C-alpha cells in the first residue's frame, strides 16, 4: 500500500466518522436575501459545538436560532452563562429555506448589548 493510498483512506475514514462536519456550514440553506428580526424569550440553550443554539419563543412561534460556535461566542463576550432560559433577546438573521422555524443568527441583542456573531 502506497503512502498516498494510506492518506486517502485515512481522509475518507475521517469524513465517514464525522457526518456533522459534512453538514456543518450549509449556509446556502438560509435565505440571506431577507433579514428576520425576531424578539422573544429564550426557552432553552445548547452551548455546544459546532454551534450554540437557542429556542426562542416569539409572539407566534418557537424558533431554533443557530448562533456562532462556542469559542466565537466566548471571544465576542457571550460566555455560556450569558444566555439563560427566560431572558428576553432580539435576534437578527436569515430564515432556513426548508425548516420554517429555524434561522441563522447574524447578531443577538441582550438588553443594551449587541453581539455580532459572524
Broad shape: globular
What's the helical proportion of residues? 10-25%
Tell me the strand percentage band: 35-45%
Mean pLDDT: 85
Query: Spans with pLDDT under 50 lasting ≥5 residues?
Result: 6-23
User: Biggest β-sheet, characterized?
Assistant: 5 strands, mixed, barrel
Strand order of the largest sheet: 1-2-3-5-4
Q: Count every beta strand, where a strand is a DSSP E run of 2 or more residues.
A: 6
The helix/strand class is: alpha+beta
Number of helices: 3
Distance between the amino and carboxyl termini: 43 Å
Order of helices and strands: HHEEEHEEE
Describe the structure.
The protein has 118 residues and is an alpha+beta fold. The protein is built from 3 helices and 6 strands. The protein has helices spanning 3-16, 19-23, 70-75, and strands spanning 30-46, 53-57, 62-66, 88-96, 102-110, 113-116. A 5-stranded mixed β-barrel has the order 1-2-3-5-4. A hairpin with a 2-residue loop joins strand 5 (102-110) and strand 6 (113-116). The longest helix is centred in the N-terminal third of the chain and has 14 residues, at 3-16. It is globular and about 50 Å long. The protein starts with a helix and ends with a strand. The model is unreliable at 6-23 (pLDDT under 50).
Amino acid at each position: 500500500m502506497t503512502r498516498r493510498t494510506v492518506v486517502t483512506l485515512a481522509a475518507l475514514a475521517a469524513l465517514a466518522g464525522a457526518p456533522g462536519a459534512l453538514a456543518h456550514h450549509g449556509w446556502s440553506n438560509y435565505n440571506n436575501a431577507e433579514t428576520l428580526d425576531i424578539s422573544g424569550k429564550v426557552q432553552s440553550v445548547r452551548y455546544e459545538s459546532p454551534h450554540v443554539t437557542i429556542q426562542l419563543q416569539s409572539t407566534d412561534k418557537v424558533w431554533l436560532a443557530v448562533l456562532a460556535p462556542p469559542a466565537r461566542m466566548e471571544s465576542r463576550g457571550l460566555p455560556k452563562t450569558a444566555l439563560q432560559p427566560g431572558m428576553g433577546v432580539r435576534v437578527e438573521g436569515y430564515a432556513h429555506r426548508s425548516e420554517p422555524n429555524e434561522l441563522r443568527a447574524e447578531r443577538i441583542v441582550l438588553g443594551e448589548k449587541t453581539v455580532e456573531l459572524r
